[in-house]
Amino acid sequence: MPVYYVNKNIKLNGEHEVHTGLCPYFPIEINRHLLGDFRSCEQALNVAGEIYSLVNGCYWCCRDCHRSKNIPKKETYNLENSS
Ligand SMILES: [Zn+2]
């Protein structure tokens, strides 16, 4: 069973991301909160949801639990502006 962590840092969309210990985007030690071993990311998300109100599975390591429909594109806003 993989070990799951939740990122203490909030994303621009207000969510805390849940990762496994094997993720390439695994948060650094100071930014991660250990959730424990779970059979599925869904269980990890439930536990993370008791700590933070808005949680989401990482696209790369928890794709089954990644919900993208509510994610605004704020992160790309300041790349270029055609005004
Ligand atoms: Zn991840």
Q: Characteristics of this structure?
A:
83 residues, alpha+beta, 4-stranded mixed sheet, 4 strands, 18% helix, 23% strand, binds zinc ion
Number of strands: 4
Question: What distance lies between the first and last C-alpha atoms, to the nearest angstrom?
Answer: 50 Å
Oligomeric state of shown chains:
single chain
Ligand set: zinc ion
Q: How do the helices and strands follow one another from N- to C-terminus?
A: EEEHEH
Task: Explain this structure.
The chain has helices at about 40-50, 75, and strands at about 5, 15-20, 30-35, 55. By secondary structure, the chain is an alpha+beta fold. It has one domain (about 5-70). It has a 4-stranded mixed beta sheet with strand order 3-1-2-4, with helices on one face. The longest helix is centred in the middle third of the chain and has 11 residues, at about 40-50. It starts with a strand and ends in a 6-residue tail after the last helix. Bound molecules: zinc ion. Zinc ion binds next to loops.
